[in-house]
User: Which sequence fits this backbone?
DNA sequence: CGCCCCATCTGCAACGATGTATGCCAACAG
DNA sequence: CTGTTGGCATACATCGTTGCAGATGGGGCG
C-alpha cells in the first residue's frame, strides 16, 4: 500500500490539508510546522500521487506528441529536443507513433489518449487540415512542420519554400544544371514535399534554368526510398549532375546508391539534403543540407502549446511562428 | 466541461454504474439497455477519463522507459520497437531521458514519475546494481542491456561477450592482426564496454594474437567520440589495420575520420561496429556490425515487465532472458 | 478593554471512475 | 402459492488529492 497524505498528516500531527498546503508551497505556514511535515514526508518516503492530483486539478502536466516513428532520425532528434524543453517547463511528453497511417493519426487526435494530456503537439502526415479540425477535440493543439497549412490552426512553420530554394541556388552556384529532386511528385504543391519542390522550381526560374519533370522522382522519405529512387533514375538513363533529397534520410540513401554505382560525389554528382540530422555531418562524404532550426521549432512549439494550456483566455488569435533555417555546406556539395 | 459518465447515464436513462458496466463489457446487460447507453455515448461524444480510472483502479496502463537520449539512434530505434510492442499489449510508454547523468537516473527510478507508470524499463548507464536496488521502489523494474548485471534484478541480456568475440573473429579471419578497439578503457571488464572488450580479448587469445593495450582507445559512445578517438590514434602513430567500434555510432564516426584522413576502407583499414542501427546499412562503405536482436530485446523486455505487473504472484524468480545476436557482414569489413 | 484583522490551520466536498453489496423482478420448481 | 434462482440494474463507498469556506487565536488599535 502506498503512503498517502493522510499517513504523513498523522505522523506530523497536522491535518491532511496542511500537508497538501506544504507540498503546494502555500504561503502562510509556520516554518516549524512546515519542517515537521517535511520530516514526516522524508521519514515515510511519501510521493505525491500524480494520478489523484490530475483528477482533482484537471491538469495532467503531460503533453502529447504524435509523430510517424521514432526510428526516423529527424523525428527522434526533434522528440528529444521537445522533451527537454517541456521538461524544463514542468511537463512530460507522451509520445505516440502514428506510423503515418490516417487511422492512427485520427485516433491520436481524438482518443482517450487526449484525456491523459493537457495539449497535443502533432506532426501530421496523413491527415489534411479539414480532417484535423474535424477530429480535434477542445484541448490545445499545435502542429509542427508544414505538411498541413491552415489559418485556423496554431502551428510552427518551417520555411520549406525558402530553404529549398536556398539549397537549389547553392547547387546552381556550384555549376550544376541538371538537379534531380528525390522525394516528390511532379506537380505537388502542398505538404512538405510540394512546398520544397516549389522552392526548387522558384530557384531554377530565378537562375533561368529550365525545369524538367523527368528529374523529379517520387519515393518514400526513408533511406531505402532514396536509394531506390536513384537506382531507378540511373537505370532510366536521365542525365543529372546533382541530387536534392527532400530530406536527409533519402539524400543519404541516394548518396549510398550513387557510390555503390561508382559515381563520384561530388565530382560527378553533387548531393544535398534537408533536415541536418546528426548523421549528415558524419556521412562520407559529409552531406550538404539545410538545418530547419530544430531546436527553435521545439522551443517555439512547446512554448506556444504551454501558453495555450495555461492561458486564461485561450481564444487568442491563431499563432504561426516561423523557425529560421540555415544552409550547411559540406563535402557532398561544396 | 468534459462529458462524464453521469451525463451519459442521464441521457440513457440508466444509472451511472450501468454505463460503467457497458464500457467494461459486463456480461449481464440487456441488449436494448446496452444499445441505449452506446447511443448516448455516441451522441455526447463521451470519452472515459483515464485519469479517474487510474486513480480508482490503481493501474495506469503506462510503462516508463528510461534511456540516455532519443537522439542516439540505437535508443530511438529500441524505443520505437518497445512502444509498438507495449501498444499491442494495451500499454503506453512514457519516455524519460536521463542524459546519462546519475542524478537523473536516480530521479527517474524514484520520483513521482513512478506513480504514473505501472512498471519501468530502464537502460542504466550511470548507476550500478547496488544503487539501482537501493533507489528502486516496489513497482516492477526490468533492466535492458548489460551495463549492469546482477542476479537480483530482472533484465534482458545482450550477448556482449560472445557477439564482440564474433566480430573480432570475423576481422581476424579477414587477415587483420592489429585491431583497434574504440570505446573502452584497457582493463574495463564490466559494463557494455568492458564486456565487449573482454569478448574481443577472448577472440584474440583463441586466434593466438597478442593483445596490445595501445590499441584500446576510450571515448564517448557517439559519432564525434569515435572520430576523435581515431584522430588521436592516427596522430599517435600506432599501427592498425582494423577498427572495432564498440557501438555503431562511434564506428561510423571512426569510419568518417578514417576517410577524411585518406585511409581506404576496407583495403587499408577494416571497420566494424556493434548495434546494427539502420544507418549502418546505408553508410558508405556500409558498416559491418552485429545486430544484438533489438526486436527481440524489446519484445522480451516488455513481456517480462507486463508479466510482472499483471502477475498475482510477483515474487517469482528473477528472470534474465538473453537475446540472440547476428553478425552482419558488409563492405567496411568483408 | 474589547473588537477586528490576519496569519495559520482545519474540515468537507468534490474530481470521475469502479468494486461491493444488494434490490428487484420474472421464471421456474416444489 | 411460496421459495429459489439468476438476469439485470442500482446505491454507496472509495481511490488520493485540491478548492473552498470556515475556525482559531494572538496582536494591534481605537
Assistant:
Amino acid at each position: 500500500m502506498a503512503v498517502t497524505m493522510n499517513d504523513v498528516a498523522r505522523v506530523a500531527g497536522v491535518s491532511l490539508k496542511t500537508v497538501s498546503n506544504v507540498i503546494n508551497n502555500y504561503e502562510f505556514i509556520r516554518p516549524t510546522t512546515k519542517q515537521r511535515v517535511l520530516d514526516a514526508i522524508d521519514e515515510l518516503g511519501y510521493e505525491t500521487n500524480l494520478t489523484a492530483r490530475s483528477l482533482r486539478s484537471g491538469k495532467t502536466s503531460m503533453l502529447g506528441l504524435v509523430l510517424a516513428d521514432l526510428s526516423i532520425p529527424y523525428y527522434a532528434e526533434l522528440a528529444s529536443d521537445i522533451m527537454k524543453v517541456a521538461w524544463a517547463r514542468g511537463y512530460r511528453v507522451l509520445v505516440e507513433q502514428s506510423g503515418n497511417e490516417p487511422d492512427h493519426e485520427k485516433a491520436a487526435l481524438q482518443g482517450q489518449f487526449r484525456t491523459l494530456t493537457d495539449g497535443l503537439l502533432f506532426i501530421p502526415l496523413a491527415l489534411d487540415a479539414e480532417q484535423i479540425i474535424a477530429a480535434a477535440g477542445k484541448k490545445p493543439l499545435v502542429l509542427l512542420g508544414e505538411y498541413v497549412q491552415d489559418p485556423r490552426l496554431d502551428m510552427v512553420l518551417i520555411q520549406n519554400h525558402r530553404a529549398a530554394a536556398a539549397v537549389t541556388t547553392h547547387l546552381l552556384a556550384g555549376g550544376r544544371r541538371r538537379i534531380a529532386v528525390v522525394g516528390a511528385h511532379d506537380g505537388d504543391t502542398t505538404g512538405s514535399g510540394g512546398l520544397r519542390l516549389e522552392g526548387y522550381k522558384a530557384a531554377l526560374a530565378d537562375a533561368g534554368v529550365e525545369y524538367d519533370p523527368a528529374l523529379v522522382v517520387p519515393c518514400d522519405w526513408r533511406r531505402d526510398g532514396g536509394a531506390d529512387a536513384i537506382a531507378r533514375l540511373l537505370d532510366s538513363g536521365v542525365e543529372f549532375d546533382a541530387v536534392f533529397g527532400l530530406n536527409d534520410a533519402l539524400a543519404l540513401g541516394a548518396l549510398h546508391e550513387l557510390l555503390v554505382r561508382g559515381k563520384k560525389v561530388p565530382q560527378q554528382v553533387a548531393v544535398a539534403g534537408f533536415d541536418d540530422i546528426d548523421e549528415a555531418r558524419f556521412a562520407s562524404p559529409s552531406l550538404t543540407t539545410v538545418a530547419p532550426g530544430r531546436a527553435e521549432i521545439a522551443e517555439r512549439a512547446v512554448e506556444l502549446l504551454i501558453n495555450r494550456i495555461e492561458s486564461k483566455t485561450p481564444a487568442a488569435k491563431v499563432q504561426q511562428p516561423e523557425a529560421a533555417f540555415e544552409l550547411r555546406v559540406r563535402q557532398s556539395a561544396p
